[in-house]
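U., I forgot to send this yesterday:
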Amino acid sequence: MPAINEYNPLEFFVNVWIVIMTMWSPELTGRTGPRYIAIADALASDIEAGRLGAGDQLPTHRALADSLGVTVGTITRAYAEAARRGLVGGEVGRGTYVRGQPDRGNALFAMSRKAEHRPNTPLIADMRHNFAPRLAQDDSINRAMTAIAAENIEALLAYQTHEGMREHRAAGAEWVAMGGVAAEPERLLVTCGGQHGTAVAFNTLLEPGDTLLTEALTYPGVRTLARMQRLRIQGVAMDSEGLIPEAFEAACRQGSPRALYCMPTMQNPTGTMMPVERRRRIADIAERHGVAIIEDDVYGYLIDNAPPPLSTFAPTQGYYLTSLSKCIAPGLRIGYLVVPSGQSDRFLPAMQATVWMASPILAEIARRLIADGSAHRMAEARRQEARARQNLARHALGALGWRANPVGLHGWLRLSDPWRADDFAIAAAAKGAPVTPIGAFAVTRTKEQAVRICLGAASDRACLARALGELAGLLVAAPEPYLSVV
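Result:
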């Protein structure tokens, strides 16, 4: 028998093979600082990005050490650091396993470990959150609520049908028509906002184990929903015009997916806008392969003369989602899900199981705002504010990798070497201007280094300009570890 700690080539190669073929291996390229911290950071990034889920087994200390070419002690320290952060646990006979994301928040909202060490950093603007900007007080909602309170509201306080009252669905049909979707009220369901509409669509159209296609970079909430429903999520390649048709066709042929979730208009996080002809091609592929298209159009209200929604080109496979929460008020949790003719009843069990019905009182407020034109006016005001804020972003970051729609409330900042997305996010948080790194959106590993910057949550344009100035200053400087190199 070999002596303890004696090098065993066979054991070494077996351990490496196990890690490569069946287990997690961290991406350490570009990570600075102590090796054990880099491994723990990589583990956190993979959990946040959904590449590792709760209960996933991690390699043994020896196997991962051999794979990475480090000592067993380094892996022991890395796992101990991950355990300190609440990322992993260990049991006798089970080894080390993923606990999941820390209790303090998900990938989109959790601060990085290093940023948390600076609790006294004054916050200039939190640019992680994709909120609509607050505008001058508009009393339209107050008037609607006062009018409702003065009437007999017994019906609004009672149980209603799962899909919503007909007058509320008719108002929704009027609203989505302004976005290019012509639909009878019978094709609409009133939802509790866009996220709820997405959950209802997933629950109805997909079964556990089904494959869901998304853009390679997608809204983190979708990954959370997919994980909760035990779906297999697969990213499809994108370019500057959004989803690539050839990549979508290949995914349809190879994996038998059931649905595609996408944002053709003002894509989150990149802000790309899919051209009309590409929408036609994507819809044709989906129709031929029987793949449902779940189109999220919550930012469509920002665009004047936007292309027709993708779902309108797929009459039998297109499902359209929108919400008033982004364009009117986040507390007005009302959205609309438009389904193909004759399919509404399929979605009623999911509505019943999740909320029974969207709040009739909120739906009535929405109906009145749509009917008297207030909703359109408020959306237009936010569109103008978004344009002004994008001008500030373009002035500060336009020559530094900024990419965004001229009226978008978020944009995509590509980073140049030696910046890594996680490091930039940590540095930005330390400056009082936190942003979201690419790992929160990536469905699969990517070498691209970028961050999403949201412009709406800043209290005013002056705060936004100051925060953008801090980010611009970071971009022209090197990360801290490099500044000390002579």
